Amino acid sequence: MAISTETHPQQQKVSTQAAGDKKRWTIDDFDVGKPLGRGKFGHVYIAREKRSNHIVALKVLSKTQLKQSQVEHQLRREVEIQSHLRHPNILRLYGYFYDQNRVYLILEYAAKGELYKDLQRCKYFSERRAATYVSALARALIYCHGKHVIHRDIKPENLLIGARGELKIADFGWSVHTFSRRRTMCGTLDYLPPEMVESKEHDASVDIWSLGILCYEFLYGLPPFEAEEHSDTYRRITQVDLNFPSKPVVSALAKDLISQMLVKDASKRLPLHKLLQHPWIVQNADPSGVYSG
Ligand code: AK4
Question: Could you say which of 2.40.50.140, 3.30.70.330, 1.10.510.10, 3.90.640.10 is the CATH number of the domain covering 113-284?
Answer without folding.
Answer: 1.10.510.10
